[in-house]
Design goal:
With about 325 residues, the protein is α/β, with parallel strands linked by helices. The protein has a domain at about 1-45 and about 105-170 and about 270-335: FAD/NAD(P)-binding domain (3-Layer(bba) Sandwich). The protein contains twelve helices and 19 strands. The strands form four sheets. It has a seven-stranded mixed β-sheet with strand order 6-5-14-15-16-13-17. A hairpin with a 2-residue loop joins β18 and β19. α2 (about 45-55) packs parallel to α11. It is globular.
Length: about 325
């Protein structure tokens, strides 16, 4: 069996690994000109780690990650509002229940499990249409690829989803987020503790990641997409916004390089009526983009990959696709 995968992100690489374990032929088409580490940090919750285990990727990914034993929600003065003990969950699950790593290290670990020859770069998918029982994919360079099975893993702005589900809508969650990596481990900081500190209309999270680095994210409310007040903010303005917060927040921001700052509006997708159209299947953010809470975007993408591969391993393709749609719609709508 052959599958064409659109997108070499988390969902695309994970499902390629799962299908190759079944002996399938896979081809991945990626719009970027090269595969290189991008982004900042990422948390992996128990569902993501369980899916990685199913796909045979757990050890490779965990080797790049910092295990998290406790999550503390704090106020802006550092007082604990709520605490979650992840070690207790880990004992119940038989594996880690929370870990944090650089998104680029996750991508590198997933890539290491696949031959580079199956990935074609500079292949931006711009359209998809059904041609008989097949799906025809059009690319920006004029090339057209036809396949009996297409797995769309091309993110929240998925060209495949927009073509086959023109009614789908992205939704602005009315807040924006800055992310960055600060070098150097902070004295007295517990590397197994993830903190999220809340102030009036804003919050900031800190987590140690391997390589003596600290990943941080900072969120605040926004009245509109591409709010110029936020989109043009530099590091000094972010520091001023969180200047009244407890240590080590100011120290982490002070250690951050200006050119490492990443700003994004936070978007999700309105619930979809289906994740499949014929032999085209949506996975990850292309299907059910969610706000970035506890890494559930990545977690659901890995679940999608594990579930779809498992279904293809025991059911005829058409039945597997129908069952995937039924299971993943229910799961995504709950999250």
């Amino acid at each position: 069996m052959r599958a064409v995968i659109i997108g070499a992100g988390i969902a695309g690489l994970a499902v390629a690994k799962g299908l190759r374990l079944l002996g399938w032929e896979t081809e991945i088409y990626e719009q970027a000109s090269e595969l290189k580490p991008l982004g900042a940090g990422l948390s992996l919750s128990a569902n993501a780690l369980r899916a990685l285990r199913t796909l045979g990727l757990y050890e490779a990914v965990v080797a790049e990650a910092q295990p998290i034993h406790r999550l503390d929600l704090l106020d802006d003065k550092g007082q604990v509002l709520q605490s979650t003990d992840f070690q207790r969950f880990s004992q119940n699950y038989g594996h880690l229940s929370m870990a944090v790593l650089h998104r680029g290290d996750l991508h590198k670990a997933l890539l290491s499990e696949l031959p580079r020859s199956i990935i074609r770069t500079e292949m931006e998918c711009v359209d998809a249409r059904q041609v008989g029982d097949n799906i025809a994919l059009s690319f920006a360079n004029g090339e057209i690829v036809e396949s009996e099975l297409v797995l769309a893993c091309d993110g929240i702005h998925s060209a495949v989803r927009r073509a086959l589900f023109p009614q789908s809508r992205e939704h602005f969650a009315r807040y924006a987020c800055w992310r960055a990596i600060a070098p150097g481990f902070l004295q007295g900081m517990d590397p197994a503790r993830l903190t999220e500190s809340w102030g009036a209309g804003k919050r900031i999270g800190l987590a140690a990641i391997p390589g003596e680095r600290v990943y941080w994210f900072a969120c605040c409310g926004a009245d509109q997409r591409d709010d110029p007040r936020l989109a043009r903010a530099d590091l000094a303005e972010v520091q001023a916004m969180f200047s009244g917060f407890h240590e080590p927040v100011p120290e982490v921001l002070d250690r951050t390089a200006e050119d490492s700052l990443i700003w994004t509006d936070i978007l999700d997708l309105d619930p979809m009526p289906s994740f499949t159209r014929g032999r085209a299947v949506l996975l990850g953010d292309a299907a059910h983009a969610v706000t970035p809470d506890l890494g559930q975007g990545a977690g659901l993408a890995m679940e999608d990959a594990a579930v779809l591969a498992a279904l293809f391993g025991r059911l005829p393709a058409d039945r597997a696709i129908r069952e995937y749609d039924k299971r993943r719609l229910s799961r995504a709508h709950r999250v």
